[in-house]
Amino acid sequence: MGSTRTRPNLWQYIGYCYGKRLPDSMRDWVREDLAGKGATARMMIRVFIPAFLIILPLFFVPTSWDVRISMTLPILIPFVYFSHALNKVWRRHMLRKHGLDPALADELQRQKKAHIHEAYVARYGPRVGPPSSHDV
Fold this sequence. Notes:
Layout: H1 10-17, H2 27-35, H3 39-55, H4 65-85, H5 87-97, H6 107-112, H7 114-124
Helix pairs in contact: 2-3, 2-5, 3-4
InterPro entries: DUF5313 (IPR035197)
Pfam families: DUF5313 (PF17240)
């Protein structure tokens, strides 16, 4: 039933957003989702949604908006901070989990900065030495 699909249904998508592996028939969709344009923003939104659901009841506490904001921001800010800080780590993990190259998470950035790398190679020659962490 679901193995020939190329895009996840709602329940597959929700599971995927929070770590579940999708069938191999959806690899192209996964690649675009995790390494394509807007991947960073999509991942941050996926982390924000549960955080928002956690703080939503606090907005119904009968008090002033100052107190509501002071109750919710200390919860929301770490969610946003860590979703940004761990974004690439999570995307690489999910790429690996789906049998894709984790380096795809940096593909767009490498394409944007290709001219800088080419200028470096033209001036100083190719880089030699141990691979850096971005090659992992």
